[in-house]
Amino acid sequence: MAMAYREVSITSWLDPVFKYFAEQSGIPLDQYSSQVGGEGIGTALEIVADFFTKGWLNKTVQVVAGLIADGYAIWGKDVPTRLRRELLALGTHELLRFVDPKPSDVIEFQRSLSVSIDAAKRGDWNAFLASVLRTPPEIQSMLGVVAPLPPAPSPLPPPAPSGEGRYEVKSEAPTPKRKSTPPPPPPTTPAAETEPTPTRKRRYEVKG
Residues 26, 84, 88, CA angle at the centre, nearest 5°? Predict the structure, then answer.
């Protein structure tokens, strides 16, 4: 059992990948693989943590993982030398991400901590979890998945040209036309009274 314990390694499966580079660099394969492989595994753990957590919880997970790995590598008993080197590379990688954060990490850390404290005081545990865990839309955004857009409204029929060169769009429900009322007839004035014209009497002369 003790012999099997001494052969424990978290990067031995990467030896075939790093064999060529170890030979070219002149570094023993176990040392090269433990250093580069430990950094690689630490980066993979960091990506997983960033994928599911954010804010102060993300940094806490990295610090705890780094302290456990480094602490076991330094103070662990009967730990193989190769495993110590692997854990030191992994743990140091995680701790340095907390010591040297990006400006955006600092802003997110402060915002997340403030929101978490306020949500805990109000007893709003949904808001508390949302401040430290990635929501489905955030995960989709990280994966480059675009949310489906709402269906577009049905297009209007193409406008028809009018006689004056303008385009008129017909509405779906035409408004009823108002019946035009004929204008009232003009007022009639009473006919002017005309005086009867005198008739002339013809005289007849009888010639004898």
Answer: 85
